[in-house]
Design goal:
CATH architecture of the largest domain: Sandwich
Strand content: 35-45%
Number of domains: 2
Distance between the termini: 84 Å
CATH topology of the largest domain: Immunoglobulin-like
Number of strands: 9
Length: 145
């Protein structure tokens, strides 16, 4: 009788441990399958430019790297913000606006708050809706409003 009780207790413990291990394994699998949240370009720019918050009602254009690099940017109607590596010595990033195949140079981006930026008055460029950041003649970032 005593041996039978020990055997039954042993079987109950084995079943309990197996149940706990199966539940724990299932929880780990579910955690691994949970989708991760990818930050938006705006969130990346705001984290790069410390203390900067882009108003939610501001018209903006995401600037994507068209040169094969890893740069990103965001343009509003008053400024262009870019996360780009330092340019080669003697070269500068330049901002341009384009409409109907006409391009106008706004100016050179400057280092500020952890990235590259330039402020401008879009009222001086009515109808221009494409933003281009160049390095020399090479287009680096592009986006449209």
């Amino acid at each position: 009788m005593k041996t039978r009780s020990i055997f039954v207790a042993f079987v109950i413990v084995v079943i309990a441990v197996a149940g706990v291990l199966l539940i724990n394994k299932k929880l780990k699998v579910n955690k691994l399958l949970a989708p991760s949240v990818t930050p938006t370009i705006q969130q990346k720019i705001e984290s790069k430019f410390l203390g900067l918050t882009i108003p939610t009602d501001a018209e903006r254009a995401e600037l994507k790297d068209v040169s094969g690099g890893g740069g990103i940017g965001l343009a509003t109607r008053t400024e262009i913000l870019a996360d780009l590596p330092d340019p080669p010595k003697g070269q500068l990033y330049q901002a341009r606006l384009e409409k109907d195949d006409k391009t106008v140079l706004i100016g050179n981006l400057r280092v500020a708050k952890g990235g590259w930026m330039i402020s401008y008055n879009s009222g001086a460029y009515p109808g221009y809706n494409k933003v281009i950041v160049t390095l020399g003649d090479t287009h680096i970032l592009e986006g449209s409003f």
